[in-house]
Automatic annotation (TrEMBL):
Protein known as: Uncharacterized protein
Source species: Butyricicoccus pullicaecorum 1.2
Length: 295
């Protein structure tokens, strides 16, 4: 469970805040129970049909994150994604894989950097959007994001802004829940292990970068509002704007890193040289050895 330093501090010193956190935990448990089956069905629907007969879950997990509204950043969540990537690709000492999982992960190693950065960008985008809403009701998002040939990151995200009274004043805590499954489909992999797939990924990333300007427009609207202009420089709206500016920078950095990693793969895939040096070579060999015809 991720908690900001301020949340941890208040839990140690403020009994009212402890009670508020208990309420938040129970509320989240109920919300998860209500949406779990829908998330599982959305994954089943993703792989419905004769085209998908062989799927393997490479990794799954869930993470709860609590941060004060004024201190929200993507750094904690980015760390979770990085550690998840290490677990998926066997780079974590705590990662234990079955022989079947390991046989799939080995030929996917060339995509490690790109997959982790693509997942980070996707999560950053959704969580930045949800953080702007600051709804008192749960905001729910399900996404199915391709992070590499045959690899799909299935996401369930819940976000809520809780406002409660501590011993001294009112506090707003942002609660985020992230549940994920990374599933490999050889049917998808055989269709995606090529340059065209990377080009389509790059196009999608460019569109996401363009759409990030919408967040900048919201930030500009806040900073040019009468309330903001009339407020003291250390007021809550100024703190909110400064925080959103950091989040927007984090988001753009995540998107640019994912784009750069995809470009690097695309360059290696297009370069002249022996077939064995191509990042797709090992995955193609694995898939063809299983009887799949690669595009």
């Amino acid at each position: 469970m991720g908690k900001s330093d301020k949340v941890k501090e208040l839990q140690k010193t403020d009994q009212n805040f402890v009670a508020m956190m208990d309420t938040m935990e129970k509320s989240l448990d109920n919300a998860i129970a209500s949406h779990q089956s829908h998330f599982e069905k959305s994954i089943q629907d993703f792989y419905t049909g004769d085209s998908f007969k062989h799927i393997t879950v490479l990794e799954s997990g869930a993470h709860r994150d609590y941060q004060m509204q004024m201190d929200f950043t993507m750094s904690n969540i980015s760390d979770v994604i990085r550690m998840t990537g290490e677990e998926i690709f066997g780079k974590s000492s705590s990662s234990e894989k079955t022989p079947e999982q390991q046989s799939i992960i080995d030929p996917l190693q060339p995509y490690y950097d790109c997959a982790v950065k693509t997942a980070t960008a996707a999560l950053s985008n959704v969580l930045t959007l949800l953080s702007w809403s600051q709804s008192a009701e749960y905001m729910i998002e399900e996404q199915h994001v391709s992070v590499g040939p045959g690899m799909t990151l299935h996401l369930l995200l819940l976000n809520k802004a809780f406002q409660g009274q501590t011993s001294t004043d009112s506090k707003t805590v942002l609660q985020n829940y992230i549940e994920y499954k990374i599933i490999f489909s050889p049917e998808l992999g055989s269709a995606q292990v090529n340059v065209l797939y990377l080009q389509s990924q790059l196009t999608a990333m460019n569109r996401s970068l363009e759409k990030s300007s919408e967040f900048q427009e919201k930030l500009n609207a806040l900073m040019f509002s009468d309330e903001y202009c009339e407020e003291d420089i250390d007021g809550p709206l100024h703190k909110k704007a400064a925080n959103y500016e950091i989040c927007l920078t984090d988001l753009r950095n995540a998107m640019m890193q994912a784009r750069a990693a995809t470009l690097a793969l695309l360059k290696d895939s297009s370069a002249d040289g022996p077939l064995t040096s191509c990042p797709h070579a090992k995955l193609k060999e694995y898939l063809e050895g299983k009887g799949f015809v690669c595009a």
